[in-house]
Amino acid sequence: MSVNKNxxxxxKSVHAGMMENEHHAVVNPIYQTSTFKFRDADHGTxxxxxxxxxxxxxxxxxPTVKGLEDAVAQLEQGHxxxxxxxxxxAIHTVFGAYLKQGDHVVCSEAVYGPTNTLxxxxxxxxxxxxxxxDTSDLNEIKKAMRPETKIVYVETPGNPTLCVTDIAGAAExxxxxxxxxxxxxxxxxxxxxxxxxxxxxxxxxxxTKFLNGHADVxxxxxxxxxxxxxxxxxxxxxxxxxxxxxxxSFLVHRGIxxxxxxxxxxxxxxxxxxxxxxxxxxxxxxVYPGLPSHPQYEIAKKQMKCPGGMISFEVKxxxxxGKIVMNNVKLCxxxxxxxxxxxxxxxPATMTHAIMPREIRxxxxxxxxxxxxxxxxxxxxxxxxxxDQALNRIP
Length: 395
Ligand SMILES: *Cc1c(COP(=O)(O)O)cnc(C)c1O
Fold this sequence. Notes:
There is one protein chain. The protein has helices at 9-15, 41-48, 63-75, 87-98, 113-122, 138-144, 167-176, 227-240, 246-256, 259-279, 297-303, 318-328, 358-363, 380-391, and strands at residues 81-84, 104-108, 129-133, 149-155, 180-184, 202-206, 220-223, 283-287, 310-315, 333-334, 344-346, 370-374. By secondary structure, it is of the alpha/beta class. The chain has two domains: 9-256, Type I PLP-dependent aspartate aminotransferase-like (Major domain) (Aspartate Aminotransferase, domain 2), CATH 3.40.640; 259-391, Aspartate Aminotransferase, domain 1 (Alpha-Beta Complex). A seven-stranded mixed sheet has the order 1-7-6-5-4-2-3, with helices on both faces. Strands 8-9-12-11-10 form a five-stranded mixed sheet. The chain is globular and about 75 Å long. The model has no long low-confidence stretch (mean pLDDT 96). It binds pyridoxal-5'-phosphate.
């Protein structure tokens, strides 16, 4: 089920994970079954003992799910993948497999909100401590390392500030202390950035975003670097139970066929929109890793094929300015999530981060007029015209 390793991501997106099957279907069949029959008692014994390859029960593995796992693992140039019921299930499975009482984690402060809460509120209950630091500054990681640090967890580009962490640099620091570097590669996708090749040990994804790309499935995936990791994480996933079903795996795998093509368009559109916003009189500032004004512009250029489809920008007029844009866009859809073919826009101060006290929100760089844009694959001039008319309503 493995596609030629030397193929480009454009070809791998289309073919990786496709498997031979009974009727020679071009696309993987959906094995919508919870369980698999044994030929006889000896066959059952051999499967349970791991002496023969095969499927037993869908929580422990399923051919349709395996096709998707292979596809993402091959795009990441990793060993094997493990599909999970959501991005959070993937992240939880990795933490649950590798952390125990007394361990310490160093985590990006610009991280997906629930990842922060999982560590700060749930894992802390089990005696795991976490230091949240600005990982875009490698010295901050170095300073936070302790003898008991087991995982350095990096999200890059990070949410929602789009700051970029040097993956190779972070790997060196983690490995000097025998810690694992785990990278959340959701914002970039494997087509734009390959953390395992840069030195990371494990990659996690929210499939919900660019990998699926069509805003119709919630899912997650872990990519491992070797068989030992795979066995440990397969066991943890089997026990925690947060698997992805065959139907959703099929849908995500279908989405991946156009991943390379979509990412090219996301990047081209976002680059043009970032430049437009940068010059707009109603826009205070723009954060996009493809603009030379981005603080980690050079690192982004070095480790990413292109800077991605996510833009953050600050509009004039604070909270009110942000609301005016939200209420006047027509083509951009007012919704959270990201990475789909449709352009989504949201205003963290009145939406995702509205419950945060203003002081704390500002400390986290989530300012009143901050707008987050997930640039889709629509016609870029039509997107620009939509943003322009909405911005021009700000007095
Ligand atoms: C959405 C997201 C997650 C969580 O994924 P779910 O599929 O919603 O559980 C994790 N990390 C990042 C960067 C995300 O954008």
